[in-house]
Amino acid sequence: MDIQLLSAGDRELFSRYVSPIARPVSDMSFANLLMWRDVYDIRWGEWDNHLCVFSIGGEEPSLFFPPIGNGSPARALDACREVIRACGHHRLAIEIVREEELDYLPGATLTPRSGDYVYETSRLISLEGRALSHKRQNRNAFVRKNPGIRIEPYRASLHRDACVELLERWNHRDSDDPEQEVCIKRKQETAAATCLLDFSEELALPGIVLFVGDQLIGVTIGESLTPDTFVSIIEKTDRQFAYSAQYIFSEFCARCWSHTKWCNACDDWEVPGLAHAKQSYDPAFRILKWRATLPL
């Protein structure tokens, strides 16, 4: 199998493979894959009517998710084994495996991963009900405390540099140990999010930026995953502005995604604070995910 580096021009091909999937995970979002391309050296190939996506530059060469398409996934998986073997490794790792894919991975060693959080878009807009009353109060408090709130569609020519500065502020923690895994992940996410800022207009991704007065304090960008689901790919706000995250999340859903039924807010990286924040929005359900390893 010949594999090539992922590029923006591959979006239509990826869509042909992903769109028939009833409930894809956030990791299958094309924009999500493209933003992480340089961090993980993401490459792809086709074999026997299947799309195979590889991470060559991670901790070990791996498949991002099992081959997707029509035909025999087992044959496509054998072709993927050859790619990994050519990289000099002696096992096949698959980073993201959905529950419905477990049946054709017999003998795999499975490690549970954090699953995606999926919410009803309409509830994120209204924040109605007892379970979300604190989010509604937070959003209202942000409006009361900050006169001069303004939202604009994200435009790279107007907002890119200020958004990068925001990402750098978000990434920096005075108490950080740069060797800690969470700090390394945050640094990688900052690099990936900067990449997303650069190509989002080329892919026509909906995004908004949040201002208080003349200061840009938030940015969020998403992508349609299926006809009834969007994925919230990045959302970053200035921590000095309390409740700005609750405000921009709800506004993004209202302004860009009110026509959808579901919002997939990705997983929590197994970071306790992020898990608590995502769970506090009362998800409708989670999409379970595993990491699998197989002998070559």
What does this structure look like?
The chain is α+β, with helices and mostly antiparallel strands. The protein contains ten helices and twelve strands. The radius of gyration is 20 Å and the shape is globular. An eight-stranded mixed beta sheet has the order 5-12-6-11-10-9-8-7, with helices on both faces. It has two domains: 4-114, Aminopeptidase; 116-287, Gcn5-related N-acetyltransferase (GNAT) (Aminopeptidase). A hairpin with a 2-residue loop joins strand 9 and strand 10.
Question: Could you give the topology of this structure?
Answer:
Layout: E1 4-5, H1 11-18, H2 30-35, H3 37-40, E2 42-47, E3 50-55, E4 62-69, H4 73-86, E5 91-98, E6 109-120, H5 121-126, H6 133-145, E7 149-153, H7 156-171, H8 181-199, E8 207-212, E9 215-226, E10 229-237, H9 244-256, E11 262-264, H10 272-279, E12 285-295
Parallel strand pairs: 10-11
Antiparallel strand pairs: 1-2, 2-3, 3-4, 5-12, 6-11, 6-12, 7-8, 8-9, 9-10
Helix pairs in contact: 6-9, 7-8
